[in-house]
Prior knowledge:
Blueprint: E1 2-7, H1 15-28, E2 36-45, E3 56-64, E4 70-76, H2 79-103
Parallel strand pairs: 1-2
Antiparallel strand pairs: 2-3, 3-4
Amino acid sequence: MKIQINTDKNIDGHERLEAYFSAELEKGLARFEEKITRVEVHFGDENGEKFSLNDKKCVIEVRTAKLQPLTVTEHADTIEKAFGGALSKVKKSLTTTFEKLKAH
């Protein structure tokens, strides 16, 4: 499973940030590991320098073998909270998708 972390110009995308979120993705998606080929994470700050509630955005796109990419978006007041919400959404979506495939 290849993991790619992207940030916009308003978020500092340093190595520690990439290492932390990559490790969290590997832990969180471990049970789907052999089905996932690639995970892309996009972080953004929609208001830049201005303060606003829920202006941090995390988009997670998961590519699986033989299926359409799955994309979820979460907004929060920090990138960590946005990531946590998006990770929960993507795990739920993957569980639902693979359970439906198993049923057919």
